[in-house]
Each structure stands twice: as C-alpha cells, then as structure tokens.
Design a protein that fits this description.
With 338 residues, this protein is of the alpha/beta class. Strands 1-2-3-4-5-6-7-8-9-10-11-12-13 form a 13-stranded parallel β-sheet, covered by helices on one side.
C-alpha cells in the first residue's frame, strides 16, 4: 500500500532523493515505478535492498523497466545490489544514464565487473566520476579503465588481479581511493607502489590476508606529499604485539606535508606501540581518529599532539575518565569525541 501511494501521489514532483532500500522490487513493482511521471525530478535512487528472487539477484526483467524509464533520464546516483552478469551489462549500456555521475553496485558473481567495465572507458556514454564496487572479482576490468571523469573509486571485498593493481596507476583523474578488505594483494607496499600520485584521500580498511603490512613502503610513497586524508583501519589488528610495534615504527609521515586527517582506528594499538612518535611526525594534522584501540595512558599522547590538531576521536578505548579529563584540561585541542 505504501509503495502504491508513493507511485501514485502527485505531491512528490520536487523529490530529489528516493530511498527504496527497504522495498522488494519484483517486475510488477518495477513497471509501476517506471510509470510514475511525478518522480522525474529524482536525482538519487537507492535500490540497495536485494530483490525478491530466491537467489537475491536482480533479474533483467526487474531492472529493464527502470532502465528504459524516463525516471532514469536525470539520475545522478544509483545504489544497487545483487547484479548478475546480464543485469550488470544492461545497466552499463543503458542510454538513459547519460547524466549519471555516481554508482554504488554490489556484484553477485565474478563476471559482473566485466559487464560494468564499459562505464569506465574514455568513450563511455556514462560519465562516472564516482564508482563503488562491492563483491566479486575485478578480473582485469580496471585494465582498460581510462575515463577522464573518474575521480573517486571505492572497492569493497573485491579480488584484484595484478593487471587491476597496475591499472590503478593509470587512472588519469583519480584523487580519492578507498579499499575494504582488498583480496589477493601481495603486500601493502605492492598496493601502494601502484597508486597514482594524485590520490588526495587514501583509505585502506581491512586485513590483507597473509600479506606483509610494509608501512615503510607506504611512508615512502611518491604521492605522500599530496595526500590530505589517510585511513588505515584494521590493517594492524591481526599482528602480534611485537610485529605491531615494529610496523608502527616504520610509519613515518614526515614527508606527508599536506596530511590533515589520519584515521588509525581498530588496529589494537596500545600504549607501547609508539603512537606518539607517529603523531609527532605529522605536524599538519587537524583531525586524528583512534577509535576502537587499547589506549589507556593519554599523557604521552597529549604531549605529542601537534599545535594545529582540532579534533580527536578516542571512543571505545579503555582510557580512564581521569585521563580524559586531563587531556581536556590540557587545552591541546578543541574537540574530543569519546
């Protein structure tokens, strides 16, 4: 009833953001949505709830009514999950998506990324500037990705081939890169060594299974001087205490002149891992996130806080209320989040 009311209501012509993430779209509902003329002003569409198919895969029968609908003509962002090879191919070649700039897609199988790949070519009719891919294998799909518009790439739980890693360095406009649990990466150093030097925001979240962490190579990365935001979450959490302390000693951010934001959350960092030394070597920091670690003694941390730091996140650490009070009374920062 609610879905029918949405499709039939004449009062939503100014709606710009439509979230259907809790709606199961079978072909019948997809056709009804496609005919909803008063929703033609929608710019962002969230279809991220998996379909009612028993395998939780978008069928072409459910997706195509939308792809050929005027509803898609002016979309700027789509979030969709559960694409198989055929539905991914239909999405990539949809003429109606010429205004699309941002796509978040969860793939069902290893072939589907190959179907999305045409969107990343320089001659693509879809000028994507932002792409988030979750699941499946890239399978070399980035190898021919040369879209001059693509500036933001977010890869989550994807398997990367050597060709995919090499291709990262050739993306002409990439400035923001995020990875969660990247698979089949030889080492953090191997990954970073292939990144384009223009990346301003770099986020690596997740353990590299059976791969050396190699923070020394990260410290020497050729793009370090241009990076403004660095996130390394869950990267050290699987290491022994000795290995974690050794890795922290290798993280030297003294050449990261533009680094303003550093997130080292969820790495099991404790008071003996040399965290103050890392902070001292990043004098331009304005935001530091240390959530979900094992920090108790904040005195050494207080002494290391750079003059320009304004925000510190310390939630989910076993620091005592007294230690937090001392940090606040020190006047070393403006905002403390616990």
């Amino acid at each position: 009833a609610t879905f029918n009311a949405l499709c039939d209501s004449p009062h939503l012509e100014n709606l710009r953001d439509l979230d259907l993430s809790l709606v199961l779209l079978d072909p019948g509902r997809a056709h009804k949505l496609a005919r909803a003329r008063h929703l033609l002003g929608v710019r962002r569409l969230d279809l991220s709830l998996l379909t009612s198919d028993a395998r939780s895969i978008w069928s072409v029968g459910s997706l195509e009514p939308l792809l050929f609908s005027p509803l898609f003509d002016s979309l700027e962002h789509i979030d969709v999950k559960g694409l198989d090879d055929d539905s991914a191919h239909a999405l990539a070649y949809a003429d109606a998506l010429e205004d699309l700039s941002s796509l978040s897609v969860t793939l069902h199988d290893q072939r589907s990324m190959g179907a999305i790949a045409p969107m990343l070519r320089a001659d693509s009719r879809v000028p994507l500037s932002s792409l988030r891919v979750s699941g499946g294998a890239l399978g070399g799909a980035l190898h021919h990705a040369c879209s001059p518009a693509l500036s933001q790439l977010d890869l989550s739980n994807t398997t990367m081939s050597p060709d995919d890693l090499s291709a990262l360095a050739t993306l002409p406009s990439l400035t923001r890169l995020a990875m969660f649990n990247p698979r089949e990466v030889a080492s953090l150093g191997a990954l970073v060594g292939r990144l384009p030097a223009r990346v301003q925001r770099l986020a690596i979240d997740g353990v590299l299974a059976n791969a050396p962490v190699d923070l020394h190579e990260l410290s020497r990365w050729r793009g370090a001087a241009h990076t403004e935001t660095l996130t390394l979450r869950h990267v050290l959490s699987s290491l022994t205490h000795a290995a974690r302390a050794s890795a922290c000693a290798e993280l030297d951010l003294s050449d990261w002149a533009d680094l303003r934001s550093l997130d080292l959350g969820a790495n099991h960092l404790d008071d003996d891992d040399g965290l103050p030394d890392i902070i001292r070597r990043a004098p331009s920091l304005e935001l530091l996130s240390l959530r979900h670690n094992q920090l108790t003694d904040l005195a050494a941390l207080t002494d290391a806080i750079p003059e320009g730091l304004r925000t510190l996140h310390l939630s989910v650490n076993p620091a005592s209320p007294g230690a937090l009070a001392d940090l606040l009374s020190s006047g070393a920062l403006r905002h403390l989040h616990t």
